[in-house]
Structure formats: C-alpha cells, structure tokens
Amino acid sequence: MNDKFFVDTNILVYANDQSDKIKQQVAKEIILNGIRNDQMVISTQVLSEFYVTVTQKIKITLEPKTALYIIELLRSAEITEIEWSTVIRAIHISQDHKLSYWDSLIIAAAISSEAMILYSEDLNHGQLIEDVKIINPFL
User: Fold this and answer.
1) Which runs of consecutive H residues, i.e. helices, occur in the chain?
2) Parallel, antiparallel, or unpaired: how do β-strands 117-119 and 5-7 relate?
3) ∠ Cα 97 101 105 (to 5°)
4) Is residue 138 classed exposed, middle or buried when 0-12, 13-18 and 19+ CB atoms within 10 A define those classes?
5) CB within 8 Å of 75: residues ≥ 6 apart
6) For the residues of 59-87, what is the DSSP string, one character each?
7) What torsion, rounded to 10 degrees, do the Cα atoms 57, 16, 137, 92 define?
8) Which of 22, 27, 55, 57 has the greatest CB tally within 10 Å of its CB?
9) Which CATH number applies to 5-135?
C-alpha cells in the first residue's frame, strides 16, 4: 500500500512560523513523521515558495541562511522536480477544477509523485483530484 503524502508550502511555513503555536506543532508533527517514516514528498516549487515566504512574508522572518539550512534538512524527504508533463497536467487541473495554476501545479506534482494525500490549508478539505485526497490538517 502506498502511504506517501505530499506537503504544500503552507505546512512547511507553519512549521517555522512562531505566530501560531498550534499550527506550528501540527505542521512539525506532519513533517517529522513524514521524514522519519520515509513518506513525505515535496516539490522544488514548494521549496522555492517556502524560501521566499519565510524570508520575506511572515511576521517574524527567518534569516536567509536559516531558511537555506532548513531546505538542506528537507533533502531527506522525497523531492520531485517540476517537469514538462507536470506543467501540462497542472494546466488541465486548473481548467477542469477552476483552481489557480500554482495550486494546480502542487496537485499535479503530488499526482506525479504517486502520493495518496496532499496536506494543504489552501485547498478544499476532503476533495479528491485524480487519486490524491486533499487534507487540511488544521481543521
């Protein structure tokens, strides 16, 4: 049974954002369990969005070298690159489900990596797109 799950950018951000301790703890547990059990998948897009968000957009930003260090630690997760076929799939998902392209690219990367679950706060909890179920772990 495939028990891989994909983590959206907001999960990584909450794990490193001190403004909401409850979400921070939930996000840390997802990430630590995912790495420990070799289940977590993230994409190069997620890593890029994470870096920009934690160094520029959260209330208490991280130093760039700290964000880089975290990204280096995340290398122990499965990292999927965004390929041409993923972009095309994302465009179709965006059109078919009326979602933003960037959210659709996250979903397409989850599908490409054969993850069964996508943890995200930004998408519709419980929705199934192709074989990926979207779960908002903060509900």
Assistant:
1) 9-15, 21-36, 44-52, 64-73, 84-97, 101-112
2) parallel
3) 95
4) middle
5) none
6) SSPPPHHHHHHHHHHGGGSEEE---HHHH
7) 50
8) 27
9) 3.40.50.1010
Q: Which of 130, 129, 86 has its CA nearest to residue 108?
A: 86
Render pLDDT for 45-101 as a digit per residue (tens, 0 to 9).
999 999 999 999 999 999 999 999 999 999 999 999 999 999 999 999 999 999 999
Q: What is the pTM of this model?
A: 0.94
Residue found by looking up tokens 């959260």 in the block: 58
CB-neighbour burial class of residue 54 (10 A; exposed 0-12, middle 13-18, buried 19+): buried
Query: Which tokens is 48 given?
Result: 């890029």
